[in-house]
Design goal:
Order of helices and strands: H
Radius of gyration: 8 Å
Low-confidence stretches: none
Largest sheet: none
Helix content: over 70%
Strand content: under 5%
Distance between the termini: 26 Å
Number of helices: 1
Structural class: mainly alpha
Number of strands: 0
C-alpha cells in the first residue's frame, strides 16, 4: 500500500512549510 507513504510525504511537506 503506497497510501501510507503518500500520507507521510504530505506530513513531511506540511512540517517543512
Amino acid at each position: 500500500i503506497r497510501a501510507l507513504s503518500n500520507i507521510v510525504y504530505t506530513l513531511a511537506c506540511k512540517e517543512r512549510l
